[in-house]
Write the structure tokens for this entry.
Amino acid sequence: MRLISGTTAVAALMALVPETLAADSAVFRDSETGFTFSQYSAPYKIGKTIAFRVAVPSGATPGQPYDAVIQVAAPNDVGWCGLAWGGRMTNDPLTVAWANGQSAVVSSRFTTQHSFPQPYTGASYEVFRTGTKSNSTHWQYTALCRGCTSFPASSSRNTTLNPNGANTFAFAYASGKPSNPSSNTSSFPVHDSYNYWSHDFASAANPDFVSLVARNSGRALEFVA
Ligand code: HEM
């Protein structure tokens, strides 16, 4: 486990850690939003990574749904990137996002097949103004997700992610852009690449999660159902 210190400098916040970690995820403290995230740096192009960061409340009860905050920082040539909370494309919440001008759009998706994932109301997002931005190299969003940690993994079984340990995640991305970037129901091209990792939730625990959500939520950009 490595500790990455956040600073208030925009460039430093968006800086991505070189992919030299022995473990899949590292701790990232974001002084802008106040959350402590567990971060995975997904390999993108040579010398580039996409940072997927998750923050959860301390003391969440195993087996019970809980909220999570997701923050993603992606190079500007990423057309869209997505996170699969159950570690596969099918039957779990897909958090798909892309840049939109100086901001970003988050799109809630779900699919039961390896085909275009449709909008999903089982997970909803509040996109925070703080921590959602772009600069000359990266775009980034920060959002609260309700419905990402517990989901219908099959018609007979609900899966709840372990708040105290590692969960298998998957990412996917494409350099192709969505057809209508200002809309969270836009279509987008199939992925160029996908892969899996183990994301540690224990080190993503925030004792002050509720107050941090309230602080950042008061400045929410949009609500995505
Ligand atoms: C345009 C939308 C999409 C299409 C048409 C699509 C299609 C497919 C297809 C056909 C496969 C089978 C393997 C292959 O041929 O490479 C696959 C696999 C996969 N896709 Fe997608 N996909 C889309 C979006 C997404 C999104 C948004 C995610 C995650 C956020 C995702 C994650 C994955 C993963 C992790 C796999 C590996 C197999 C699995 O774990 O289920 N895909 N996709």
In short: Confidence is low (pLDDT under 50) at residues 1-22.
